[in-house]
Amino acid sequence: MVKFRKKPVVIEAVQVTAADFNGSTFDGFPFSEFPDWLRDAVKREEVTVHPSHETDYALWRINTLEDGPNGEAKHIAEPGDWIIRGVKGELYPCRDDIFRMTYEEVTDAA
Q1: How do residues 71-90 score in pLDDT, each as one tens digit?
Q2: Which residues constitute the domain of residue 38?
Q3: Any domain includes 110
Q4: CA-closest candidate to residue 30, choices 41, 40, 21
Q5: Does residue 98 fall inside a structural domain?
Q6: Using CA atoms, how far apart are residues 14 and 35, in angstroms rounded to an integer?
Q7: Residues with Cβ < 8 Å from 32, sequence gap 6 or more?
Q8: CA separation (Å) from 28 to 22, 31, 48, 58?
Q9: Which of 25, 79, 89, 108 is the most exposed, having the fewest neighbouring CB atoms within 10 Å of its CB?
Q10: Does 5 fall in a domain?
Q11: What is the rounded CA–CA span in Å between residue 48 and residue 45?
Q12: pTM of the predicted model, to two decimals?
């Protein structure tokens, strides 16, 4: 059996907060931070509010290359999840428990 180890890479990520959304406005800010890359993705509608009838919290649809041909939502970030910007600028959601098992904070400028 051949084994592999994931190469160490540095990513950027923002955590989705539990901001109420009434269909037009937020009660609170929906992200832990709002860096330029996320602001640009929201402007380009690569990250959009995803309607939910099950919760008052804002859910976020993240457009990826893996989405279906009709644009059906396959990648949804919920409160507590992380929106990750990968090494090529791609965006994708990650559940908090998986994020914490996979990533650690970079404290130096490496």
Answers
A1: 565 789 999 999 999 888 99
A2: 12-80
A3: no
A4: 21
A5: no
A6: 8
A7: 14, 15, 16, 17
A8: 12, 9, 17, 10
A9: 108
A10: no
A11: 6
A12: 0.81
